[in-house]
Amino acid sequence: MNKKSKNTKVEPLLQGQGIPNYKEITPLKINENLSLLLKQLNEDFTLLEQEINKSLNSKQSLNWDEVMTPLHKLSERLRWSWGVVCHLNGVRNTPELREAYSKKQTDVIRFSNKIGQSKIIHKALCSLEKNSTKLSLNQTQKRILEAELLSMNQRGVGLDGPNQEDFNVASERLAELSTTFSNNVLDATKKWSLLLTKKSDVEGLPPRALELLAASAKESGDLRQDNKNIPTAKEGPWRLGLDMPRYISFMTHGRKREIRECLYKAHVSRASDGDLNNQVLIEEILKLRTQQAKRLGHKSWAELSLCNKMAENIETVEKLLEELRSAAMPAAQKELADLQSCAERHGAKEASKLAPWDINYWSEQLKQEKFQLNQEELRPWFPLPQVLQGLFDLCERLFGIKIEKADGDIPTWHEDVRFFKVLDSSGSDLAYFYLDPYSRPSNKRGGAWMDECLGRSKFQDGKTVLPIAYLICNQTPPTKDKPSLMSFEEVETLFHEFGHGLQHMLTTVDYPQAAGINNVEWDAVELPSQFMENWCLDRKTLMGMAKHWQTGESLGQEEFKKLQLSRTFNSGLATLRQVHFALTDLRLHSEWGEQNKNTPDHLRRQIAQTTTVIPPIKEDQFLCAFSHIFAGGYSAGYYSYKWSEVLSADAYAAFEEVEVDNEEQIKAIGKRFRDTVLSLGGSKSPQDVFKKFRGRSPNTKALIRHSGLSVTD
Which residue ranges form the domains of the chain, and what is each CATH number? Predict the structure, then answer.
């Protein structure tokens, strides 16, 4: 009898390494594979604990490769597999995927807590730290150990009995709440839409926006009033939505004020009522976080959060935010007055008292008056392929790398996804990245982000695993006849996320726990991303990529000057907005508690009295969609954007200090930036890395100057 050959093919989520096969990863496979994987990992971890405990009991000295290496391999198998699931949950969200994700989330957290709370592993790490000199551990290894011990303490390794049980129950509940919060925002965004049928409803909208709204109407099955013809950009109907490409277009250009008001109120009240109400979730999240912090010996979640950040304490963060607030408030008040004057010149009824839904519209009108700059008219000069090439040319100029397309080499999760490889100057592969550029409101969460598919590491045989990054944006999609024509803000967003990608991909650290963005303090992680944004207004970069998609004509010098002049336009309002978000986040996680009779929303409105020039309206329930802090990693850390901006502005100033045409010096500084900020990852403290690049500690002067603000005494 012939025996059937064994199927040696490894299931997609059990391989724990390499490039994910997205064609085979289904909700069914997620359920099956993760159950089996977690069973294997639990068994392997038990064996590892037994081996380590045996060495500890025999007083045998442990070394790095006996503890950290096998521990990382275990953790990486789960990170890789669960990371793939989390990624798909963000970019290809379906009811089936949600169900599979929710089913396995608790088991994943339990296994992570099992590692984080292992007394044996903790004892082994303490032994490594104690014997670090004897074991000749280098500075990177010592820093990794320090971070790992802090992480274990924050995951409850020091708790016992009921305290640890309560801690674990709360951890699982917090993860569940975070997922529900995120799903509610996605569903609420997707649920709301408004069909416009009159041409007067869409007055002021540029052709590109009309095309997008007509395409949305077509996708929804809407027909023209005669019920026979499909929607067109010229004749309609047009369907408005809350996803950024449609929302921002109408808020910026739509002349019909009552529709702007309706759209704005729908946007700021997302996920605040009915089955998708996040208000109750917010209070529970905040209560649980406070309880978790107190279990670990801290007064608040903010105090706990700052233990592994650059900022020393809450007072340090408050001081930075107040410095920025006091500089921004006078500027913001003047900017609001300028917008009112603009509205008066146009005879607008709302000029005497502008509402929040008027700000974007009149900002655009004033910008056109002041600079003769129409952002929509600039879109044809920023087709995605050309912008990508400009970005890649800049990276070659500054960092000596080449980027080439490699589409078709690997399976992707959507037909729009691109794949690229990063090469060094000799043509050898350094890294790879996926790019998923377009908005898909039906199944892709909003915003933009970079995430890790594979991190850099080195096997014992010397073979190096090269990094792979996910770069996700939500920009305007192409139409039937046109490529994706980007707004300048979308260009900046792409450069921003690519900055994160560069730190992940150009790392030279071979310890995966500190390679790329790993082990980088959270309030320094935005340094490379915000640094890259600055180059969007570098003359050589901008003029090299801004070419008309049809004629190939370069952007005019006048338009370039206008973009530069508009850099600080409404920077007071923009800075104040970020300070408001950051301060709200910080105080919710340091001051709000169950003993407070006020709601989180009430606290936010109190903060708004000194951080906004137009108070939030009654319908404004912004917190219900503040995913950064309730469903992301920015809780008690939203200030990181401004903290990192201090670093990034100061870093970019190093290039401003040399002659603009001195390419040799620019390349030398670029190499130094690559060899420090982009290379060293979490192997050194951000303060030391910055000093290594800049030769001194950072200061706020460059940021204040770039923002066009002045510090008041």
Answer: 27-158 (1.20.1050), 192-270 (no CATH), 301-377+571-629 (no CATH), 378-501 (3.40.390.10)
